[in-house]
From TrEMBL:
This is Heterodisulfide reductase subunit C/quinone-modifying oxidoreductase subunit QmoC. It comes from the Bacteria. GO terms for molecular function: iron-sulfur cluster binding; metal ion binding. SUPFAM superfamilies: alpha-helical ferredoxin (SSF46548). GO terms for cellular component: plasma membrane. It comes from Caldithrix abyssi DSM 13497. Residues 23-54 form the 4Fe-4S ferredoxin-type domain. Keywords: Iron, Iron-sulfur, Metal-binding. InterPro entries: 4Fe4S_Fe-S-bd, 4Fe4S_Fe_S_CS, HdrC_iron-sulfur_subunit, Helical_ferredxn.
Length: 190
């Protein structure tokens, strides 16, 4: 039986990550977190997260870079801002979640186990870049091929209902002037 080591040593922490955190929007106040847990208790999706928002703030500030960037939490955050408006220390938790997600994308880090949300986000953006908009049925197919066809089979009844209701077109959707969209996206990314 494999025994997983739970202990972390100080020399495994990443001080560069802590310094970087203080430079992202909202990150400059994370050091003031008093670990009250308001954010975790009010977060509607914290029960599905592997690291609660309160714990994530402490881990990010301490330099647990790998654990933070590989967590499901940053991808599950629904950007509802409930934590941010209720934090007694005025810490911009939602903005920090975005910053962490951006860093994970830049470093091409994903959660250790296969997880649909980052793959969905990337496929969505690629499709918008190419066609100016997405075609839901193609997006679902791309996702299924990347995360496993079993998921597609599980989603089949839902897909069928959506198709019957006219909400899931098989026809490829695209805008008329794709070049304009490409130019706009290039300007945003620059
Ligand atoms: S609500 Fe604010 S102060 Fe309290 S644990 Fe969350 S981030 Fe820290
Ligand atoms: S913004 Fe994200 S972390 Fe904050 S309460 Fe909403 S879902 Fe939870």
């Amino acid at each position: 039986m494999q025994i997983l080591r739970k202990v972390k040593y100080e020399n495994e922490l990443n001080p560069e990550f802590t310094s970087w955190l203080s430079t992202i929007p909202g990150g400059e106040r994370v050091r003031e977190c008093m670990q009250c847990g308001t954010c975790s208790s009010i977060c509607p999706v914290s029960i599905y997260m592997d690291i609660t928002p309160r714990r994530l703030m402490a881990m990010a500030d301490s330099g647990f870079k790998d654990d933070v960037l590989q967590s499901f939490t940053i991808w599950l955050c629904a950007s509802c801002y409930a934590c941010t408006v209720n934090c007694p220390k005025d810490i911009k938790i939602t903005d920090i979640m975005y910053g962490l997600k951006r860093r994970a994308i830049e470093e091409k880090v994903l959660p250790r186990r296969r997880f649909a949300i980052p793959i969905l986000a990337r496929s969505f953006v690629n499709m918008v870049k190419k066609n100016g908009r997405i075609t839901e049925s193609r997006l679902v197919m791309t996702l299924a091929l990347k995360i496993g066809l079993l998921h597609l089979l599980r989603m089949a009844p839902l897909g069928w209902s959506l198709m019957r209701a006219g909400r899931l077109s098989l026809k490829k959707e695209q805008v008329q002037n794709k070049e304009q969209i490409k130019t706009m996206l290039k300007a945003v990314e620059a």
